[in-house]
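W.,

You were right to be curious about this one. When I first looked at the sequence I had no strong expectations either way, so I just let the prediction run and decided to look at it fresh. Below is the sequence, 123 residues in total, followed by the output.
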Amino acid sequence: QVQLVESGGGSVHAGGSLRLSCAVYGHTGSTYSMAWFRQSPGKEREGVAMRLSDGRTRVADSVRGRFTISQDNAKNTLYLQMNSLEPEDTDMYYCAKAWNWDLTLNPNKYNYWGQGTQVTVSS
């Protein structure tokens, strides 16, 4: 069973940076997708960035140029480096994994989810 554990959230001022981590347990297989999503209460879950196991990535327009997704295969850990944070980035951030091979940010395509880590950006 795959388990995803996020960490690294916190509170920062606008313009600051955070790096989120997602530790992956029970991983098998070499073809998969990993992604970061975010969600506020009452809103739909929004795809932020994703990475295929071959290294290709896709980043949402709303965060392009500010957020970077990466992965350390030796540590089985996915990262999201977030720079130039804005109050609009305040959300719960979730890590997700899928066994598909699509450059998709559609949350319905992902099979496994972490519990989330809160990011709060003050102005």
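Here's what jumped out at me. Residues 37 and 47 are 4 Å apart (CA to CA). And, maybe more interesting for your project: The chain has a mean pLDDT of 95.

Coffee later to discuss?

I.
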